[in-house]
Write a structure and sequence with these properties.
Length: 440
């Protein structure tokens, strides 16, 4: 830290009330100015705040900083700004503690530069009716898993994480299908969404995202009410005619759900992915004539559209292919006949010819704790979590295990972390100070 009263070698502050009690050997301070038992935590923090705002350049701990503060004030302020910018790259778990220091730090957390999600604050959230997280691990794994404690968990004991957007999690009740929250797990700031009209014998698909043009967050809910005798149907055993289909939209600045018309597609009811690209949420449709389609929903005009697929991907017909976001582009993990998977990326959004096969992932059976689970996961497609800094691919085998894959060598490496739950769904999350009603 660049400050006249902060030692440059170890960051200690030079404040009279923190000096040992008694007379100053140098004769500069009176004993009444030094440490006394009457000082409290509050008085010490107030002294530090006063020191930061009004440096004492007559008795400096950093002589160079004192001279620059006195003679070159503008240069000194610019150097301080650079220090502050570097501090913003600290892990979110460190930054969040600053809000407990004083009201000024808490106010600073609302600053648009500080609240904007940063790549350095990526973490993994493990959802399994409880929320766990780990700061983004290095390429070799490691780290300790910690637990979030949502303030609303008593009223919603079983929930699922729909998705993450700009440091916010969309969380829905996994049992009653009624309650839903938007939640910043690091600030504990949350918003409970209004309870929609109750219904029975149906399925719900939920998405959440932000559109930069309209500067608005929206929660999207597709409600499929079953028309028949109430039997639970999977998307592979039903058609669009089996359901009454309606889409409901909630804007975070509003207070009610509103209908946005009928859903013109039967989406894959088993899919939990709704990646956000270019202000549009994306899903894979259920199998139909011509194969599975990629469907987008524009958060601005609230219209469904088909996303063009490449013609030369054999596995993109009727197999499930989880969608993801890689380097800001829409991507798909396409299952092949030989148990391998191909990662295709649409480098230019909505341009059919821009689809490119970026990676091949060979067939792999993860080392599961229960051997009876291995066969059930053999033919399930992988979920792409993200790319690591060493260009390896971070993948999940549907609640069974995490692994990194090196496309150059073709080798997998199982990843585990201390305290990780046994069964989970992994969400890539970017921690931030983002407040629910204030778009970044």
């Amino acid at each position: 830290m660049w400050h006249p009263n902060v030692y440059p070698t170890d960051g200690r502050v030079c404040i009279s009330i923190l000096h040992p009690p008694g007379d100053d050997p140098m004769g500069y301070e009176h004993s009444s100015e030094r440490w006394m038992p009457v000082h409290t935590v509050e008085s010490k923090i107030l002294s530090i705040i006063s020191m930061l705002s009004c440096p004492n350049d007559e008795s400096p701990a950093n002589v160079d900083a004192a001279i620059e503060w006195r003679d070159k004030r503008d240069e000194s302020k610019m150097k301080v700004v650079r220090c502050v910018r570097r501090s913003q790259e600290l892990p979110i778990t460190s930054l969040i503690q600053f809000g407990c220091v004083c009201r000024g730090w808490r106010t600073l957390s609302h600053d648009s530069h500080l609240s904007r999600p940063k790549e350095s604050n990526r973490c993994l959230v493990f959802a399994c009716d409880e929320l766990y997280f780990i700061e983004f691990p290095d390429d070799n794994g490691g780290g300790r898993v910690r637990k979030f404690h949502p303030p609303f968990c008593a009223s919603m004991p079983k929930y699922k994480v729909v998705c993450s957007c700009d440091g916010l999690l969309c969380i829905a009740d996994s049992s009653s299908k009624k309650s839903a929250y938007i939640y910043n797990p690091f600030t504990s700031n949350y918003k409970e969404l209004p309870t929609p009209e109750p219904f029975q014998n149906g399925e719900i698909i939920v998405g959440f995202g932000f559109h930069p043009i309209i500067n608005e967050y929206k929660v999207v809910k597709m409600v499929y009410r079953i028309k028949n005798d109430g039997r639970r149907l999977s998307s592979g055993a039903a058609s669009l005619g089996s359901f009454h289909c309606e889409i409901q939209v909630f804007s975070l600045g509003g207070d009610t759900w509103r209908s946005a018309g009928k859903v013109p597609y039967l989406l894959d009811l088993q899919s939990s992915e709704s990646p956000l690209v270019e202000g549009r949420l994306h899903w894979v449709a259920a199998p139909s004539f011509g194969g599975r389609k990629v469907i987008s929903f524009d958060l601005a005009d609230e219209q469904f559209r088909e996303v063009p697929k490449p013609d030369d991907i054999a596995g993109i017909g009727y197999h499930r292919y989880p969608l993801a976001v890689l380097r800001g582009c829409l991507a798909a993990a396409v299952y092949c006949r030989n148990d391998d998977s191909e990662i295709w990326v649409m480098r230019e959004y909505n341009v059919k010819e821009s689809w490119m096969k970026e990676f091949n992932i060979r067939g792999y059976t993860p080392n599961l704790e229960s051997p009876s689970l291995e066969q059930s996961y053999l033919r399930r497609p992988v979920r792409i979590i993200c790319l690591l800094k060493n260009d390896e691919i971070f993948v999940e085998y549907e609640g069974a295990t995490l692994a990194s894959y090196d496309p150059k060598s073709g080798y997998f490496k199982n990843l585990s972390f201390q305290g990780m739950p046994n069964l989970f769904r992994t969400i890539l999350h970017t921690g931030s100070f983002n407040w629910i009603d204030i778009p970044v």
